[in-house]
Write a structure and sequence with these properties.
Distance between the termini: 57 Å
Strand order of the largest sheet: 8-9-7-10-11-12-13
Radius of gyration: 23 Å
Structural class: alpha/beta
Pathway: Cell wall biogenesis; peptidoglycan biosynthesis
CATH class of the largest domain: Alpha Beta
Protein name: UDP-N-acetylmuramoyl-tripeptide--D-alanyl-D-alanine ligase
Strand content: 15-25%
Helix content: 25-40%
CATH architecture of the largest domain: 3-Layer(aba) Sandwich
CATH superfamily of the largest domain: Mur-like, catalytic domain
Function: Involved in cell wall formation. Catalyzes the final step in the synthesis of UDP-N-acetylmuramoyl-pentapeptide, the precursor of murein.
Catalytic activity: D-alanyl-D-alanine + UDP-N-acetyl-alpha-D-muramoyl-L-alanyl-gamma-D-glutamyl-meso-2,6-diaminopimelate + ATP = UDP-N-acetyl-alpha-D-muramoyl-L-alanyl-gamma-D-glutamyl-meso-2,6-diaminopimeloyl-D-alanyl-D-alanine + ADP + phosphate + H(+)
Number of strands: 22
EC number: 6.3.2.10
CATH topology of the largest domain: UDP-N-acetylmuramoyl-L-alanine:D-glutamate ligase
Amino acid sequence: MNLEQLHQLFLAHPTICTDTRKISKDCLFFALKGPNFNGNEFADRALENGAAYALVDEEKFNTSEKHILVEDVLTTLQKLSTYHRKQSKAKVVSLTGSNGKTTSKELIHSVLSQSYNTIATLGNLNNHIGVPLTLLSITNETEIAIVEMGANHQKEIDFLCGIAQPDYGYITNFGKAHLEGFGGIEGVIKGKSELYDHLIENNKHIFMNADDPIQLEKLGSYVKKIGYSTENPQYFNINYVDADPFVQFTFEGLKVKTQLIGRYNFTNCCAAVVIGKYFNVPTAKIKAALESYQPKNNRSQIIEKNGLEIILDAYNANPSSMKVAIENLKGMQSDFKTLILGDMFELGEDAKKEHQGIVDLATSLGFSNVFLVGENFSRTQTDFHQFDSYDSFESYLKGNVPRKGTVLIKGSRGMALERTLDLF
């Protein structure tokens, strides 16, 4: 079966499943492989559970006309998604960056969906499997597809661009994330910039933060760039007001009051504004979309519980996002402030230095009620409370729960610090 024939089969069965626990009737099952599983072994179960066909890449599992043997299931999924994207009239807006990708994607989706039939990456399915699945969710009605791209090493963004072939792109920022895989901050800049490199090479449009010196340097005199700025009149002006706790800003004479905490979310809002303006979404609808958006999935959520104001930002963390979250709490009006910080992962040889840097920052800002959780934080030089595991922290906190003020909970995904909520 060639790619065109497979695409026709997909159009007849436009739901893709890769997990037999989530099979929907008449779907196509792609038997993907992982470090600890072989999807081929579950192909028969997928068919029994209602899949129309199962794509496999091992001959011994190709046992009926309902099985489709391909050379490599993952590669086939990726090629099918690119073919489908080429057949579609939808415009593809791709974004990447060290921090704020998913929030920016959700905000852009919220704005553009005011005027267009829009789809976007579900959650953070932004890798070599998630990007193809997003592209395959494009329908005949889709006008704009917003595709988030994640990466932890060089050439990954370049590879994803080859799959998605974006018409537009935006990089949120360049921060200290995945330092181990990228090889330091310069590696991060090089790796994330692969999106801009791809767009420039193909003469496509780029959205940019014109207040970011790295982006200005990267894009130079490139003509097809659309930027926002708080100060440069050459670009679309958006003015920051404050964030105590929610971000407020103005543009074109309108004041926008969001439900997002932290100044660090200001640039995420700016991207949604400038992209909305480019696509001619009415200004009033941009304002309405941003004001109605509510963060979820442990990202900068404010939760009121037993007299406490809890900032739950436990979806992920790196030195850059940790720094701005702590600085944001410092600037908030509160009678008592508590930090609960979990280890930051994928920092490689920089782990010791970066964790100590966060501790030093908290000290310099005058925080006193600080709980540090994880092996890396437990090794830092400090007088703060330190715990080498979540279990030891939980045991302590049960008898020492803060009773007032504001609590910031932040750590890498692997720390799962949202568990702390049950203790308050």
